[in-house]
Amino acid sequence: MNLTERAYDLAESLLAEPLPRRWSHSLGVAERARSLQSILGDDAALMEAAAVLHDIGYSPRIASTGFHPLDGARFLRDQEGMDERVVRLVAHHSCALLEAEERGLREELEGEFELESPALVDALLFCDMTTTPDGGHTTSDARVAEIVGRYGADTIVGRFIQRAAPEIHGAVQRVEERVSAAEKASQPM
Q1: pTM value > 0.85
Q2: Largest distance between two CA atoms of the chain
Q3: Can you tell me whether residue 131 is helix, strand or coil?
Q4: Residues ≥6 apart with Cβ < 8 Å to 17
Q5: 71: helix, coil or strand?
Q6: CB atoms within 10 A of CB 176
Q7: Is 53 helix (H, G, I), strand (E, B) or coil?
Q8: Around 5, how many Cα atoms within 13 Å sit in the side-chain half-sphere?
């Protein structure tokens, strides 16, 4: 079984039944990852695997700290022996260090998991923050607003996402610019 097949099977087993909406979101994020193949090259399968796995830390079977990037990454590393780069992407997806700071877990997250390459961190952030909770496409502005609305502006998640918004929008813009440049480069002259 290859990396992406394994990732889909694992994510489905952890999310589909207990958290069907989260599973739909994860499938949508993975679909967005597939749409970035032109800029991901050899890392396309890695990104798709990380995309479908990014929210497994919400699964009641593995949630322990209540901070899903850390719980998911620990599970992938300790229980599944998953590819180290996938683990790092899950650990640090979508500005996780800022949320970890809000939760008093930044040192733990930084100490256990190195950052992955900035281009891949941006790509996963793009995929997550341009996908609705139900798996559809959206803008990063609408996604940030939806998260604030769902959790509340004064909650940990609400505060974190508002702090992270400039980085989220910046990453989305960087990825869109890379995709545009790749498309232009692939057109015949």
Answers
A1: yes
A2: 55
A3: strand
A4: none
A5: helix
A6: 13
A7: helix
A8: 2
* Token pair listed for 143: 């996604």
Q: Which residues are registered as beta bridge partners of 137?
A: 131
Q: Residue 90 is which amino acid?
A: V
Write the pLDDT tens digit of every residue in 90-136. Answer: 999 999 999 999 999 999 999 999 999 999 999 999 999 999 999 99
In terms of phi and psi (left: phi > 0; alpha: psi -120 to 50; beta: otherwise), the region of 135 is left
- H-state helical runs in 16-155: 20-34, 37-40, 44-53, 68-78, 84-91, 96-103, 106-112, 118-129, 140-151
For 41, counting Cβ atoms within 10 Å of its Cβ (0-12 exposed, 13-18 middle, 19+ buried), the class is exposed
Q: CB neighbours (10 Å) of residue 107?
A: 10
What tokens does 55 get? 């929210």
Q: For residue 55, which of 70, 68, 64 has the smallest C-alpha distance?
A: 68
| pLDDT score, position 188 | 79
- What's at 84, amino acid-wise? E
Two tokens, residue 167: 């980085």
What does the block give as tokens for 101? 């700071």
Read off the amino acid at residue 2.
N
